[in-house]
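Dear Dr. H.,

I hope your travels went smoothly. While you were away I took the liberty of generating a structure for the chain from your last submission, since the lab meeting agenda had it listed for discussion. I wanted you to have the full record in hand beforehand rather than looking at slides cold. The sequence, exactly as received, is reproduced here:
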Amino acid sequence: MVEPSTTRMFAEAAEAGDAVARQLAANRDAVAALAERLRTQPPRGVVTCARGSSDHATTFGRYLIETHLGLLTTSASPSVASVYGASPDYSGMLAIGVSQSGRSPDILAAMRAAHEAGAHRLALVNVADSPLALEAETCLPLHAGPELSVAATKSYIAAVAAFIHLVAAWSGDELLLAALDESAALLRQAWEADWSPLVERLAGARGLYVIGRGLGFGIAQEAALKFKETCGLHAEAFSAAEVRHGPMALVGADFPLLVFRQGDATADGVDELVADVVARGGEVLVSGGHVPGAIQLPHPNAHPAIEPMLQIQAFYRAANALSLRRGFDPDRPPQLAKVTETL
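The corresponding predicted structure, in token form, is as follows:
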């Protein structure tokens, strides 16, 4: 049997703490300069453009921008530009394109359309000499290093860290900046967290919901994607507020929940959901909180905006092990490639 520690996904995900440390050191001056520009010339809004894991990072970024800066943030639909050839009014907007490769045709088309419509483009990209990086007015490289496994891991965490760095500097949140400076060490601790109960419980599962709320929702989206692409396990991401409607009909002993909970204003509502599902006889695996009857998945204590990074880092190690346990190769998901050439 293949050892989990021998996969490329394992090796790359394990580097996330080092990647974030590199990024913070390399980008500090550039982020400070961009933050000053954004304070003196405030955009009328923010539009993000990404696909897959990168898009899940923008979900996190949207919640962070709107809660810390009160600035309306929306996700662009790349096909509006790449397929329909339409161009919404992006004048005065900050357009943030997020990509590991910086080469996806539809993301490039959408960012070009945003520029032509009057937006200032910011690229968060891992390949610093890629078309997206070179075309944008501002580029903040992710500094994750080469990522060869099809499943994005450290580049996703690096994108989340880049959003935290930008928003903390832009809003002048010194507490969040200090917490971010500590995050590299905490990511290394999170990598050692024991999430073996997740591997044991989901080894024979057929499906599940992945739940988050607020800052945790983009993490839930990312975990659900990794379940599908690396483990052959159908998973859907829902907000803790939305799952109480129709989706709850499927929840039960044979259909578990994985819940990401951070210690902010969303915590009580998430705890109530976990307690409700447990009371109905459902099985819940939860990272954060201490609801009796739920299976606890640990992560280091941290600022609520840092917690989601730590949770997904612990999850990546467990997902790698679960993939192998279920007979898959996490480095080579079927029918997938590293760069998606969507038009």
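Two observations you may find useful: The longest helix spans residues 16-40. Strands lie at 45-49, 73-75, 93-99, 120-125, 138-141, 207-212, 234-239, 257-260, 284-287, 295-296.

With kind regards,
E. W.
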